[in-house]
């Protein structure tokens, strides 16, 4: 525990020199290098840590816009305080490695088309890489933009496929965003609903509600007491995350963010993808708070 606290404090001190990816996204900048650390102290006696790095390169043309990038996320599950914790050691370290390509094209009457394809590996990697580790996610949506004397609003309609709720599945993309004034903007829809308030040129506070999820394959054998050995079991986690995010822009390149979140309606299970019954074990995860801190560097400042 002491080692974890020291690691967290060290990462926090480093993170205070910049801010998160979400801020640049709200002001239309895509080219970023982002580091994030997040901790969920208790999901029914289970501790979850999340560490991620994102490298995004978006080459801006007038028409269209093409972008690409990569993301690595490490989830560490702490089962030490959970009953029968020795059975779940194979799920203690989860890895998510993805690359993605984005395409945006301007259409008529202030409509735009956005499309993304993002193949990724999500696994414990206990037995190397298998085809069960691989998931192909993608999305496409249309965006209609309006500009009323500098106050912008937009409508998004589309859909996607991926692990937004844990097990990969199709999901809708629909939202309406409106700038009420130069400081306040809101967004209502799915998968993100939020309110965004710009305090000044450097600071912003966001309140958001959105899904949080993990889906990872375990290629090594797993079994509960007196049960048969199961290959390629899946750890699945899903929840609704409510967050308050404070962001600070130091200059045109560097930023930092800090957020406090609350997880509701969380579910943490181990699944058998080869069985009709599917659910092997349910951890009965409960609500939890989360702490997130991040840094971002804008590599496309001109």
Please explain how this structure is put together:
- With 302 residues, this protein is mainly β.
- Helix content is 7%, strand content 60%.
- It has a single domain, classed as Beta Barrel (Porin), CATH 2.40.160.
- A 14-stranded antiparallel β-barrel has the order 1-2-3-4-5-6-7-8-9-10-11-12-13-15.
- It contains 2 helices and 15 strands.
How would you briefly describe this protein structure?
By secondary structure, the protein is mainly beta. Helix content is 7%, strand content 60%. The relative contact order is 0.18.
Could you name the ranges where pLDDT drops below 50 across 5 or more consecutive residues?
Answer: 1-29
Encode the helix/strand succession as letters.
HHEEEEEEEEEEEEEEE
Largest sheet: 14 strands, antiparallel, barrel
**Quaternary structure classification:** single chain
Helix content: under 10%
CATH superfamily: monomeric porin ompg
Structural class: mainly beta
CATH topology: Porin
Topology, number of strands: 15
Q: Provide the residue-averaged pLDDT.
A: 84
Q: Give the radius of gyration.
A: 20 Å
- CATH architecture verdict: Beta Barrel
- Compute the number of structural domains: 1
Under CATH at level 1, the class stands as: Mainly Beta
Keywords: Signal
Signal peptide: 1-20
């Amino acid at each position: 525990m002491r080692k974890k606290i020291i690691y967290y404090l060290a990462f926090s001190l480093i993170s205070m020199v910049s801010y998160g990816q979400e801020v640049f996204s709200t002001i239309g900048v895509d080219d970023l290098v982002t580091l994030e650390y997040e901790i969920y102290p208790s999901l029914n006696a289970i501790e979850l840590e999340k560490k991620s790095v994102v490298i995004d390169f978006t080459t801006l043309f007038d028409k269209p816009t093409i972008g690409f990038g990569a993301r690595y996320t490490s989830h560490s599950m702490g089962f030490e305080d959970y009953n029968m914790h020795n059975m779940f050691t194979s799920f203690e370290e989860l890895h998510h490695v993805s690359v993605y390509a984005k395409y945006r094209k301007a259409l008529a009457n202030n409509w735009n088309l956005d499309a993304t394809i993002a193949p990724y590996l999500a696994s414990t990697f206990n037995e190397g890489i298998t085809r069960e580790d691989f998931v192909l996610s993608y999305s496409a949506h249309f965006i209609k933009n309006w500009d009323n004397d500098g106050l912008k609003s937009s409508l998004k309609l589309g859909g996607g496929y991926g692990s937004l709720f844990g097990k990969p599945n199709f999901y809708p993309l629909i939202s309406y965003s409106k700038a009420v004034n130069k400081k306040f903007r809101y967004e209502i829809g799915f998968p993100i609903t939020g309110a965004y308030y710009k305090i000044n040129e450097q600071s912003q506070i966001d309140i958001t509600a959105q899904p949080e999820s993990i889906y990872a394959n375990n290629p090594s054998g797993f079994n509960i007491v007196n049960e048969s050995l199961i290959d390629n079991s899946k750890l699945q986690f899903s929840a609704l995350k409510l967050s308050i995010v404070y962001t600070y822009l130091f200059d045109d390149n560097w930023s930092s963010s800090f957020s406090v979140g609350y997880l509701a309606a969380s579910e943490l299970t181990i699944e058998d993808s080869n069985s009709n019954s599917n659910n092997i074990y349910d951890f009965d995860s409960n609500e939890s708070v989360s702490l997130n801190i991040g840094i971002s560097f804008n590599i496309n400042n001109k």
